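Dear H.,

Thanks for agreeing to be a second pair of eyes. The structure we're designing against is below in token form, covering all 125 positions.
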């Protein structure tokens, strides 16, 4: 898809992240993959997702890392957990996908397809 590119934040061993990468590859969308294990997301990037979905939507409540750190019973606010996720990216729900000004959290193929369709419609108009 000419002119369309996506940025996918996630982990190489995350099944949903691999699904996102495959989704965009099958539709010939250029993808920039950011492995959070190698380079955690910046505060600004996380803020972009939190502004759209809220901090609570970015935290993976089922994460083994959340349990290992004892945060599942700590009662921290989602904002504090998001701050903690800057140094502990395994607390995040992945993939985090950005395509221009649009963002999505988790496995959201219907939303991604809407982006691809909108880009295709814009190029044919």
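And this is the sequence the design step returned. I haven't edited it by hand at all.
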């Amino acid at each position: 898809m000419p002119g369309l590119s996506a940025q996918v934040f996630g982990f190489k061993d995350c099944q949903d992240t691999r699904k996102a990468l495959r989704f965009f590859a099958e539709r010939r969308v250029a993808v920039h993959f950011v492995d959070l294990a190698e380079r955690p997301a910046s505060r600004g990037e996380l803020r972009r997702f939190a502004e759209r979905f809220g901090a609570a939507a970015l935290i993976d409540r089922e994460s083994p890392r959340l349990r290992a750190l004892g945060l599942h019973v700590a009662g921290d606010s989602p904002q504090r957990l998001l701050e903690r996720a800057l140094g502990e990216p395994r607390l995040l729900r992945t993939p985090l996908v950005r395509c221009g000004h649009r963002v999505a959290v988790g496995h959201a193929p219907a939303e991604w397809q809407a982006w691809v369709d909108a880009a295709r419609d814009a190029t044919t108009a």
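Two observations from my side: The two ends are 15 Å apart (CA to CA). The chain has one domain: 5-124.

Warmly,
E.
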